[in-house]
Each structure stands twice: as C-alpha cells, then as structure tokens.
C-alpha cells in the first residue's frame, strides 16, 4: 500500500536514496572469495555486518554461506581491530583449516583506518598464519560503491596476491566473469570446453554455492579456482573480462602486474554478445566452433523467429547491475522489444549510458548511481507503464502495485529458485531467459483474454 503513495513527479535528488537498487561492497567481496577453492571469506568488522552479508547470499542461493568475522566490540571500534583479527587468524586456521583466508573490510574498519597489509605482515611475523597458508585482503567500505565494486576489488586482490609471470606462456586464456550466478559461470566454462580452448577462470563459484545434496557436509566444496590456477593466470596469452563494470579493474591490474593483455567484452547474453565471446575464444585460442555450439545457437535463433509475434514491440523496464543490464538490453532488442528505462544503483559512468542508448535508442531513460534507486524506478514505471519488468525480487512490490509481469533477474532473488542452476548467459542461457520472458507475456495474454478468446494453441 505504501508504494501507492510514490509520486509520479520526478524531482532531482542529490543527497537522498530511497530503497537503493544495490547492496554493499562486502557482499560482492564475500561472493568472489567463495570462488576460490578452499577459501574462507573473512569480514573485518562487527558480527552484525557479517551476519547480513551471509544472510543475503544464503537467502539468494538457498545454501549456507560460510564466513568468519573479526567480531568488533566497543574496544575494537575505538582502538582498532588488529588484536581481533590476529586472534581470528589463529582460530580460523586451527578450527576450519582453509588454504586461504580472504579478508574484506567493512564501514567500521575502514573508518577506523586499519592497515590490513601491515596486519597481515605482523600475523606472518608472529606465526599466526601457518606455512603453506595464505591471507589476502581487499578494501571494501560499504559507504561507497556497491556489491559489484566489492566483487571487483576482491578479484583484484586475488591477482595482486597470487598472479605471477614466470616468463613462460602457458597457452591459456583467462576468463574473468563479472558478478553472475554459478550457473552462468558453469555455462561460460561449457562454451570454452566445447571449443577445446585452454582456459583459467576465476573466480568460479560453480559447484560451490549450487552444489548437490548428498547427505555429506563439506566446509569447502569441490568447486572454485585453485591458488595455483590463479597464479598461472600471469602466464596466459590473454585475459577476457566478461562485463566492463565488474572486470575492468582486475583485467587492467593483471596487464600491469604480469603483462597479460586484456579484452573487455559485454557479458554474453543473447545472440550477438555470445557470438562475440565465441569468436574471441576462437581467434585467441586458435580453435574452431564445434557443431554442439552451432546447434545451441540455432535453437535460440529458431525460438526468436517462431515466437517473435509475442515479443515484438513489447515495452520493458529494467533494473539491476550494469553488466547484466547490457546483456538484457541486447537480448530484448534481438527479440524486437522496446526498452523504456534502465536503472542501476551501481555507478557505471558515461560509457554505460552511451552503450545502452546505442543498443536501445536515444529515448531510453538511463540512470545509475546512488539516486538511481527503486523509488526512482517506480516513478518511471508510473509515468510510462511497460509491458514487462526485468529485475530482482525487490521489484515484486512495484510489479504487484502496477499489475505488470515480472521476470526475475540479477541479485538478489529471494522468492524463487532456479537462478543458481539454470544460466542466462550463452546460447542456452539466452533460450531460458527468452522462455521466461515469453511465459510472462503469454500468461498475461491468457489472463486478460475474454472467455471466448482464450487460445489453446498460441
């Protein structure tokens, strides 16, 4: 009911965010750390912060997310958290025996000014970190950026602490995905493996947060990129960053750090973007495109052609993370849809806006940053009602209030399952996403049809 009081009049805001269309950096950093094999994410801050970050990921993946915390109290909040984290290192390695501890900061530890590299060096000097074990750290204050920023910063930390150039190329292609589902990471690997390309992908959360239920508890599931694989990324022939916002900084760092050139491309959602990814793999790795991949592409093209009458001309409003939004816009445009609004709480810069307008047209309203919140998105939808909304679970209230079909995409999705098991990237992912869009639109046709006009065959 409260949503119905959202005014239609758009007022420029510079200091107020209402229901942000993002979450904080440590959530993305924690998720990225889970993509390293036998790694324990560690939140350097209060217990409450860590509990929120864990619960956000646990609710999204319906899988328990393991992480530790420095457990700041009043004393640590005033005098710093060095004593807490040094004790934490000893406890973590003694109780949980990870190979790697990936530390991310919070608002509190950043405000205090804790120097993590200095603290890690002290821990090594005092033998708090056992031989053969590693601690890495990323600066991820919640008071700026978003979960995408935090994810990117943690991936950069992996490169900083692990990647090495031995001077001998390994013939591999580095694949660095942006913040996407484990199912999407598995699909990216499926494409590379089907083509016979040698690759190193990190982070890799497939088989980590979407593992099977077999009756056995595993503190560290079998998935995730190993420390050795990430170290070897410094000898690769090329880094492919899949999604500019989430991968540009890590890819640039790997180029600077190890002289591995980088290509940043759009997340492969839809035909054109997946074609670009497949072609780049083909050229770089010197492989051919197998019949299996051509079949998957043809199936997506077939459904796009067969069902175009249901998607052509339909209007869509999108909210979410920048890299996924670019992919969604591309697929929707391939289906003949019109894009009305594209909103992201993550500040993506003028290149993002130019990209969206290039794909969707100059009339599309594009806004990113702190004031690009769900309140603003609701105002846009009220002013120019679309046929479809694509966004996360928080859109359900707007969709319900405005009686608009919703296709759940992005992070977080708390009220449905499937996103961690079925991809939206690649040709197979595009087919699933197209199916979800068609189901939403055709269900609405059936619901709104008069009794005598309900069609058996559509």
UniProtKB/TrEMBL annotation:
InterPro entries given in the database record: ChlB/BchB/BchZ, Nase/OxRdtase_comp1, Nase_comp1_CS
Single GO molecular function: nitrogenase activity
Gene3D superfamilies, sorted: Nitrogenase molybdenum iron protein domain (3.40.50.1980), Nitrogenase Molybdenum-iron Protein, subunit B, domain 4 (1.20.89.10)
Domain of life of the organism encoding this protein: Bacteria
Domain (Nitrogenase/oxidoreductase component) ranges: 24-441
UniProt key word Secreted: no
Keyword list, A-Z: Nitrogen fixation
Family the entry assigns: Belongs to the NifD/NifK/NifE/NifN family.
UniProt name for this protein: Nitrogenase molybdenum-iron protein subunit beta
Annotated source species: Teretinema zuelzerae
């Amino acid at each position: 009911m409260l949503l119905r009081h959202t005014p239609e009049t758009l007022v420029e805001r510079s200091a107020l965010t209402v229901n942000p269309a993002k979450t904080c950096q440590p959530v993305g950093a924690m998720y990225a750390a889970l993509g390293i094999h036998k790694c324990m994410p560690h939140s350097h801050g209060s217990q409450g912060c860590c509990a929120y970050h864990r619960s956000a990921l646990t609710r999204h993946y319906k899988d328990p997310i393991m992480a530790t915390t420095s457990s700041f109290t009043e004393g640590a909040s005033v005098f710093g958290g060095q004593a807490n984290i040094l004790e934490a290192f000893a406890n973590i390695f003694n109780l949980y025996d990870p190979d790697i501890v990936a530390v991310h900061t919070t608002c509190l530890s950043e405000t205090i000014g804790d120097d993590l590299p200095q603290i890690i060096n002290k821990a090594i000097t005092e033998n708090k970190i056992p031989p053969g074990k590693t601690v890495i750290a990323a600066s991820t204050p919640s008071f700026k950026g978003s979960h995408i920023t935090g994810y990117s910063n943690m991936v950069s930390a992996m490169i900083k602490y692990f990647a090495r150039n031995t001077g001998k190329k390994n013939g591999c292609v580095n694949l660095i995905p942006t913040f996407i589902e484990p199912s999407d990471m598995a699909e990216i690997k499926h494409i590379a493996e089907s083509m016979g390309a040698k690759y190193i992908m990190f982070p890799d959360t497939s088989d980590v947060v979407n593992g099977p239920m077999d009756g056995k508890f595993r503190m560290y599931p079998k998935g995730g990129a190993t420390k050795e694989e990430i170290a070897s990324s410094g000898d690769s022939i090329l880094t492919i960053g899949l999604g500019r916002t989430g991968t540009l900084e890590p890819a640039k760092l790997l180029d600077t750090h190890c002289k591995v050139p980088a290509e940043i491309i759009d997340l492969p959602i839809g035909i054109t973007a997946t074609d670009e990814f497949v072609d780049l793999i083909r050229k770089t790795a010197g492989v051919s495109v197998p019949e299996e991949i051509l079949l998957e592409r043809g199936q997506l093209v077939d459904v796009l052609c067969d069902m175009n009458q249901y998607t052509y001309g339909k209007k869509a409003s999108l909210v979410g993370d920048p890299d996924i939004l670019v992919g969604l816009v591309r697929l929707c445009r391939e289906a003949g849809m019109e894009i009305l609004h594209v909103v992201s709480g993550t500040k993506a810069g003028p290149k993002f806006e130019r990209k969206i307008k290039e794909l969707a047209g100059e009339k599309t309203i594009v806004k990113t940053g702190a004031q690009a919140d769900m309140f603003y998105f609701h105002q846009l939808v009220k002013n120019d009602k679309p046929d479809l909304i694509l966004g996360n679970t928080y859109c359900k209230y707007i969709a319900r209030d405005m009686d608009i079909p919703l296709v759940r995409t992005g992070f977080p999705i708390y009220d449905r399952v499937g996103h961690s098991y079925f991809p939206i990237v690649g040709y197979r992912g595009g087919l699933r996403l197209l199916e979800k869009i068609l189901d939403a639109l055709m269900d609405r046709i059936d619901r709104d049809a008069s009794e005598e006009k309900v069609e058996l065959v559509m």
